From TrEMBL:
EC number(s) stated in the UniProt entry for this protein: 3.6.5.2
Catalytic activity, as annotated: GTP + H2O = GDP + phosphate + H(+)
Native source species: Staurois parvus
Database matches in PROSITE patterns: RAB, RAS
InterPro entries: P-loop_NTPase, Ras-related_GTPase, Small_GTPase
Designated name of the protein: small monomeric GTPase
Length: 145
């Protein structure tokens, strides 16, 4: 699993709204991703599946939203069996987030590689440094006199 997490550029963390344990496991998966990827902005979407099984729901939508906010992820509730378009949309959304993330991190890397130009010394600074350099000599010569 580590190998897959390392080589991935984005994640869909899926739980079932009918299974509280699968929801609780999301936090653990998220921690694992964070350990492997130091980049805190790697795209992660939390997906609540089986949205059609409302009569056996164990996880309210609000809990999913709350968790996603807390972990800084996107959130969507879907039903893979009722609406396969939802599945396409989730993957599409993830791909968009990955490409956005990659373009911003490339810009940041470029910015980081540009060395700041050394500031040329201004006259005030030169005067101050000149005085500083002279002052021990002045003291020494007055002590001799
Ligand atoms: N009603 C409903 N059933 C679903 C949905 N998604 C998957 N299922 C059903 O849930 C069962 C398990 O689906 P799998 O794709 O095998 O997924 P799994 O990870 O093994 O999931 P679990 O067995 O539920 O832990 C299958 O019978 C699917 O048809 C959904 O959105 N709604």
């Amino acid at each position: 699993m580590l190998r897959f997490v390392q080589s991935s550029e984005g994640f869909l963390l899926v739980y079932s709204i009918t299974d509280l344990r699968s929801y609780e496991y999301i936090r653990h998966l998220h921690q694992h991703i964070r350990k492997v990827h130091s980049d805190s902005k790697i795209p992660i979407i939390i997906v609540a599946n089986k949205g059609d099984l409302l009569h056996v729901r164990q996880v309210p939508s609000d809990s999913g939203i709350q968790l996603a906010n807390e972990l800084g992820c996107s959130f969507v509730e879907i039903s893979t069996s009722e609406n396969c378009q939802d599945v396409c949309d989730v993957f599409h959304h993830l791909c968009k987030e990955i490409s956005k993330h990659q373009s911003t991190s490339t810009v940041e890397k470029r910015r980081g590689s540009i060395m700041p130009r050394p500031r040329s010394p201004n006259m005030q600074d030169l005067k101050r440094r000149f005085k500083q350099a002279l002052s021990p000599k002045v003291k020494a010569s007055s002590a001799m006199a």
